[in-house]
Design brief:
The complex is a heterodimer of chains A (119) and B (113).
Chain A lengths: L2 E5 L3 E2 L5 E8 L8 E8 L6 E6 L5 E3 L7 E6 L4 E6 L8 E9 L4 E4 L3 E5 L2
Parallel strand pairs in A: 2-11
Antiparallel strand pairs in A: 1-3, 3-8, 4-5, 4-9, 5-6, 7-8, 9-10, 9-11
Chain B lengths: L8 E4 L5 E6 L12 E5 L6 E4 L13 E6 L2 E6 L8 E11 L2 E6 L3 E5 L1
Parallel strand pairs in B: 1-9
Antiparallel strand pairs in B: 2-6, 3-4, 3-7, 5-6, 7-8, 7-9
Classes of the chains: A mainly beta (119), B mainly beta (113).
Chain lengths: 119, 113
């Protein structure tokens, strides 16, 4: 059974860079059958798609966040990562990593990593 | 303001049937993109409930069903149970320039009375 686990700091200062890593077990990020995604959820609010990456390194980003994002993949560690720069309080959220099928749905999710942006 | 519109809340008594709508437009659901549904129990990550409009992953009870027509989709839950109390999200894609991007509905809170 595929499992995903987010890791990273829970507190980031405004204007700094948010960095998270997702470690995948029970499956390979090198599989050509899936994309590997990030999704976030501000406290008490709905889900927002951030972006995804393919094992080749090709990435797709939410246009509203694209200028601040970098998603990368490390097939040797079976991990993929998110970097978001110039964060503000509006970026405070629970950040999920998820496996994204080519059919378009997210079939496996991590448990989430709460990131608070505050000085 | 989400691209896909869901009612903020719905409710029903145990045993009843409820439906949750997901209304889009010609640039997303109406463009032929499939709709997927997720259930988020309190304090947990979302879980895939319905994929490709009407398919259930293994382990999801057949009390849950999905449909799509035109620019909208619906999730139906029959034989409502207390454990169904959760937030439900629809998801699809929106066409933009040379690519497409994932979009979620705003979510619907289901209360079991």
């Amino acid at each position: 059974q595929v499992q995903l686990q987010e890791s990273g700091p829970g507190l980031v200062k405004p204007s700094e860079t948010l960095s998270l890593t997702c470690t995948v077990s029970g499956g390979s990020v090198s599989s050509g059958s899936y994309y590997w995604s990030w999704i976030r959820q501000p406290p008490g609010k709905g889900l927002e798609y951030i972006g995804y990456i393919f094992y080749t390194g090709s990435a797709n980003y939410n246009p509203s966040l694209k200028s601040r994002l970098t998603i990368s993949i490390d097939t040797s560690k079976n991990q993929f990562s998110l970097k978001m720069n110039s964060v503000s309080a509006a970026d405070t959220a629970l950040y999920y990593c998820a496996r994204h099928t080519k059919s378009g749905h997210f079939d496996h999710w991590g448990q989430g990593n709460l990131v608070t942006v505050s000085s | 303001q989400s691209v896909l519109t869901q009612p903020p809340s719905v409710s029903g008594a145990p045993g009843q049937r409820v439906t949750i709508s997901c209304t889009g437009s010609s640039s997303n659901i109406g463009a032929g993109y499939d709709v997927h549904w997720y259930q988020q129990l309190p304090g947990t990550a979302p879980k895939l409930l319905i994929f490709d409009n009407s398919n259930r992953p293994s382990g999801v009870p057949d009390r849950f069903s999905g449909s799509k027509s035109g620019t909208s989709a619906s999730l139906a839950i029959t034989g409502l149970q207390a454990e169904d109390e959760a937030d439900y999200y629809c998801q699809s894609y929106v066409r933009s320039l040379s690519t497409s991007n994932v979009v979620f509905g705003g979510g619907t809170k289901l209360t079991v009375l």
